[in-house]
Amino acid sequence: MLYFGYGFIGGIGLGIGYVTTIDAVIKWYPSSRGFASGLAVSGFGSGAVAFSNINAALLRAFTVPQAFAVLGAINLVVMFLCALLMRPPPPDHNLPGVALEMMDQSLTDINHLNMQSVQQTIKGKSATVGGQTITVGSNSGDPVLIITLSQALSSVDFWLLWVAFFVNLVFGVVIISNLASMSTNMFGTDIPAPVTMIVTIEGVFNAGGRLLMGWISDWTGRRRTFLFVISLQIVIVACLISVLPQQSFWPFVVLVWLATLCYGGGVGVIAATLADMFGAPNMSACHGIMLTGWSVAAIGGGITYTGVVGSLTGKGGYTLSDPYVYVVNQYWILSLLICGWIALLLIRITPRERLFPSVRGQVFCHTFVGITIRLVRGTKQHGLHDYEFLCATIGDAGSTHDIESSGSINSTDIVPGSKGLNTRLEEINLGAHNALARLDFDPASVNNANET
Asked: Fewest C-beta atoms under 10 Å: which of 23, 77, 322, 360?
């Protein structure tokens, strides 16, 4: 009953309350999504700190079943009263910079919208949808991307973001749940500060990271903030590998606090990132699926951590006070963080990146941190157009043609696909381009694909 009631039923309620709160906040404050969602989820971290002391007091005053009953009653009353204040924005709620994300869902069958046409059509104008008039702010210069939920969940960008979010959480959920035991096992009972104080300050860093990174992401962008968070985690874990063998208490604790700040930072940024990428109407469902990464990190990370510790303390002959037991765990966490960092680089976050137009023969196209990499299938060349033929001929080291004097080139000796043609193409050099410059030859004016 404990696992079913507190674990399963309580977990469902926790997820519903978490996602719906963030969904309402995101829609009310579209121009400050990072700060608004960060402030909301910081309450989640603050609640953990506050109720750790409240739960301890309840257990001292009541039996365990009675403490559960009192705790459930407190949650019921507080959450019911707060739920009365939660509602979506009214239809006429317009703010500068709001895109067409509150449009009727019947229009979300549009896969992609052209960037230029969208900017010219909706900028500074109103749209009537389902009897409601929606005004787009005059400063809305970004392109608009309207997609369905199925398109959002099936996109590569969503799952790359899932990987980055999962990796960001692994260190936090593993270390937070084991910080007290790690401190007492490695440093004993004679540590400079009480374990409860260390854990409480860790919770403050967790809540502060959610608010701080969410606010920063509104100014610097979601990708830059997320990259900073994971990059800092990589540096911290690398430092822990060096600090743990020295058994230095305060460097260890400070590094863990900073890593917890990054852990909270990823949680504070993820909701705003999803709203930016897939639109506010799809944010709740996408956020719910994204939070499965939290569960996988908690279950998978916890099992891996305890498995490594159990293996080293069992067959390996180490003890729980040996720092090597905890150093080994940092290596697989570091590897995951590097994978998440790479995944972040591949994500197309902004609509401009995801609306980049394709070209004929395109095989692959992806935006890599603002730089678009495109592979285009080559076509069979039956001949050379004038510019290529001219470069091939005058680039021939054995050519005796004087371009400036004759003004014409005899092309009868060039056969497409012949060895002579390939040789000439490989010998295009600076001399050829210098000759073109002397002729004032403009390659852009050459007609395409003239057969020779």
From this structure: 360
pLDDT tens-digit map of 278-287: 887 888 889 9
| Tokens encoding 442 | 């403009």
* Cβ neighbours for 423, distance < 8 A, ≥ 6 positions apart: 396
Q: Can you read off the two tokens belonging to residue 158?
A: 């969503």
The domain spans of the chain are 2-87+148-347, 386-445
Tell me the Ramachandran region of residue 121: left when phi exceeds 0, alpha when psi lies from -120 to 50, beta otherwise: alpha
DSSP structure string for 396-433 = -TT----HHHH-----TT--TTSHHHHHHHHT--HHHH
Contact present, 214 and 35 (Cβ < 8 Å) = yes
- Of 103-107, 314-318, 334-338, 433-437, least confident by mean pLDDT is 103-107
Tokens linked to 131? 């009897």
- Write the burial class of residue 309 (CB in 10 Å: 0-12 exposed, 13-18 middle, 19+ buried): buried
- 253 and 244 Cβ atoms separated by less than 8 Å: no
Task: Determine contact, residues 358/377, Cβ cutoff 8 Å.
Answer: no
Q: Which of 423, 412, 409, 418 is nearest to 452 (CA)?
A: 412
Give the confidence band of 386 by pLDDT, cuts at 50, 70, 90. Answer: low
Q: Return the residue matching tokens 């009353």.
A: 77
Whether 123 has a pLDDT exceeding 50, the answer reads: no
User: From the CB of residue 300, how many other CB atoms can be counted at a distance below 10 Å?
Assistant: 14
The average pLDDT across 162-166 equals: 94
96 SS3 class:
coil
pLDDT digits (tens, 9 = 90+) for 139-149: 344 445 677 88
Higher pLDDT, 254 or 416: 254
User: Under CATH, what is the fold of the domain 2-87+148-347?
Assistant: Growth Hormone; Chain: A; (1.20.1250)
Rg (CA), the chain: 31
Residue type, 297: A
Contact 43, 210 (CB under 8 A): no
Residue 420 CA: distances (Å) to CA of 266, 378, 389, 417: 60, 22, 12, 8
- Output 284 or 390, whichever has higher pLDDT: 284
Q: Which whole number is the average pLDDT over 239-257?
A: 89
Rounded Cα distance, 99 and 414, in Å: 58
At 101 the three-state DSSP class reads: coil
